[in-house]
Design goal:
By secondary structure, the chain is of the alpha/beta class. 35% of the residues lie in helices and 26% in strands. It binds adenosine-5'-triphosphate (ATP). Adenosine-5'-triphosphate is lined by residues 19, 22, 24, 42, 44-50. Residues 10-241 form the ABC transporter domain.
Length: 242
């Protein structure tokens, strides 16, 4: 898909968030276009998760505006945002540990699908996320990477328009990271716009078309991964730290 000139799915204009005296996010402008795979990076405490939480409706912005498909998200409840196609996978797996893989996917997909279509959707997700052989396994018995894959499957079970991923490969080894990277590319190729947060630059390099750097709540830089990695100021405040 030609992403560069596609329509904006999400637009943050002058968005800020204060927690008491702390300015966690400050005057952030951000445009995510249809079909894009966009990454937010920055040092700890830069405001990345707070931006996700404002998009999800967990926090209201203190100021500024967030438009989703051209409509303001102000006053839109979390559940309505989900129904409008905004889905999130948080860092800590939000799976039901005592239930099986199949049951977890069923719970996620049955919000949108029923009967034969539901079974077809579950089978598709099991196949796509390499979980077919674990269909009847209790989720607590799965590895961290398998649980992350499952949650990714649950996050796209309702065919979202915009998928937010908070550090999707945190705590994973190289093989699992590679698997998740391929999976994200596949999800994106299927037409889902993705905004993700990560600290693993190799992973970011393998995926992101556009990168936005946050620092102390503000947008610090933006561009392609090459622009960002060649930006001396970004290297100084973030990339040179590890
Ligand atoms: N609910 C809250 N109440 C008070 N302060 C908060 C709250 N949530 C976040 N903060 C503060 O806001 C700032 C931005 O936090 P945020 O979690 O958005 O950063 P981040 O870029 O996601 O960091 P990390 O990479 O460590 O996850 C931090 O100083 C944090 O302590």
């Amino acid at each position: 898909m030609q992403v560069q000139n596609s329509e904006p799915i999400l637009k943050l204009s002058n968005v800020g968030k204060s927690f008491g005296g702390l300015r966690a996010v400050d005057e952030v402008d951000l445009v995510i276009r249809k079909g894009e795979l966009h990454c937010l990076i920055g040092p700890n405490g830069a405001g990345k998760s707070t931006i996700f939480k404002m998009i999800m409706g967990i926090f209201d912005p203190s100021d500024g505006q967030i438009l989703y498909k051209g409509k303001s998200l102000a006053h839109m409840k979390k559940w309505d945002r989900f129904k409008e196609g905004i889905s999130i996978k948080m860092q800590v797996p939000g799976v039901f540990g005592d239930l099986t893989v199949y049951e977890n996917l069923r719970i996620a997909a049955q919000r949108t699908y029923s009967k034969k279509a539901l079974e077809e959707k579950i089978n598709y997700l099991l196949e796509e996320f390499n979980l077919t052989h674990l269909k009847g396994e209790t989720v607590n018995n799965l590895s961290h990477g398998q649980q992350q894959s499952l949650e990714m499957g649950m996050a796209i079970a309702n065919d979202p328009t915009l998928l937010l991923l908070d550090e999707p490969v945190a705590g994973m080894g190289p093989e699992e990271t590679q698997f998740i990277s391929n999976l994200i590319k596949k999800i994106n190729n299927n037409g889902i716009t993705i905004l993700f947060i990560d600290h693993d630059m190799e992973f970011v390099r393998s995926l992101a078309q556009q990168v936005t750097v946050l620092h102390l709540g503000k947008k610090f830089a933006e561009g392609t991964i090459e622009d960002i990695e060649n930006n001396e100021k970004v290297v100084e405040i973030y990339l040179g730290q590890s």
